[in-house]
């Protein structure tokens, strides 16, 4: 199958540091190539891929040092080039929210759009109803709840390459871990409270966006008093195996409708159990008593930790391999592609 993957240009594919959507695009693209498909990836030039790369920008937007840049202009150029070459592909797979809709209305049957973000925003229902023919994939069942009357064709959970992160049968670090981004909805303050009440060290590997710098300085920095709470900043993929694998457990104390939560399956790939809040996709990802626990308060999290440390890390890794590898994800997308292409072929025959 000839497949085009259309990535956002904010991060490289995969990102050099923090980044979710472009990371999933990277894993999916390479898994499709490994499965024998002819894949073309539209992304920034600093991308690393086994597919045919069409570089749409000299480098990803976030790490570009240019003081003035236009993400809108970059993405409009991307969509123009994809539209010009659309006939070269059997399937166009978009990861840019709904930005492409006005350009591809006459061929929406050969497109699929994976929605990677939250959907409970004021203006989204009207827009998605306006372009309701476009097939959509959600990354969790919970994510799709705010959008009812649209063309959902499946829910496909994210996956990682099975060899990306190393399994760690015994955590050598003796600490709890927080990995991701520091912002009000990620609730690193909860993670700090859990660690302190449990009497365990906490290591925080996280990005701070410009919009969250005031929150970090005012709310979080005062809590980093050296009392077993260590902030180490952003880490790369190469550092995640050691960081997550040596942790007793990953804390995922979110306070928002998380569409998926890639860090949960990154921890599971290392054999590390996850203590997660009952928000968003968490109940779809975490199997209580097997890969972690689901809690609704700091005290519940503290009380659950002894049980989490007794879980079989081998069983955690086994669940990852069964449910959350890139190969599993790619196979599910191929099923969706084939279903949509059969529908499109039937529609064309009716017209003829």
From TrEMBL:
Residues in Glycosyl transferase family domain copies: 175-304
TM stretches of this protein: none
Domain of life, source organism: Bacteria
Record domain Glycosyltransferase subfamily 4-like N-terminal: where: 18-131
Pfam families, alphabetized: Glyco_transf_4, Glycos_transf_1
Protein name in the entry: Glycosyltransferase family 4 protein
Organism: Lysobacter niastensis
């Amino acid at each position: 199958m000839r497949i085009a993957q259309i990535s956002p240009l904010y991060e490289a594919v995969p990102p050099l540091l923090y980044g979710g959507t472009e990371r999933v695009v990277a894993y999916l693209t390479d898994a499709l190539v490994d499965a024998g498909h002819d894949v073309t990836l539209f992304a920034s030039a600093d991308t690393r891929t086994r597919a045919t790369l069409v570089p749409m920008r000299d480098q990803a937007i976030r790490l570009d040092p240019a003081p003035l840049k236009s993400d809108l202009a970059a993405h409009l150029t991307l969509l123009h080039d994809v539209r010009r070459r659309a006939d070269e592909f059997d399937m166009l797979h978009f990861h840019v929210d709904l930005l492409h809709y006005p350009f591809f209305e006459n061929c929406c049957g050969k497109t699929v759009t994976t929605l990677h973000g939250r959907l409970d925003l004021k203006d989204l229902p009207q827009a998605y109803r306006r372009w309701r023919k476009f097939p959509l994939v959600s990354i969790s069942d919970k994510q799709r709840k705010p959008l009812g009357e649209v063309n959902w064709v499946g829910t496909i959970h994210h996956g990682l390459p099975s060899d990306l992160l190393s399994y760690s049968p015994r955590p050598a670090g003796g600490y709890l871990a927080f990995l991701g981004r520091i912002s009000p909805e990620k609730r690193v303050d909860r993670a700090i409270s859990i660690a302190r009440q449990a009497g365990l060290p906490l290591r925080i590997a996280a990005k701070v966006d410009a919009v969250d710098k005031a929150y970090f300085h005012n709310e979080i920095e005062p809590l980093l008093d050296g009392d077993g709470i260590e902030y180490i900043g952003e880490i790369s993929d190469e550092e995640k195996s050691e960081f997550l694998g040596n942790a007793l457990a990953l804390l995922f104390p979110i306070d928002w409708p998380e569409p998926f939560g890639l860090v949960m399956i990154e921890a599971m790939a290392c054999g590390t159990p996850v203590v997660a809040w009952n928000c968003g996709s968490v109940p779809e990802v975490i199997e209580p008593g097997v890969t972690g626990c689901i809690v609704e308060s700091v005290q519940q999290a503290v009380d659950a930790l002894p049980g989490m440390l007794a879980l079989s890390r081998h069983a955690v890794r086994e669940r990852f391999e069964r449910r959350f590898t890139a190969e599993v994800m790619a196979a599910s997308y191929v099923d969706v592609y084939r279903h949509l292409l059969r529908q499109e072929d039937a529609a064309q025959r009716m017209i003829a």
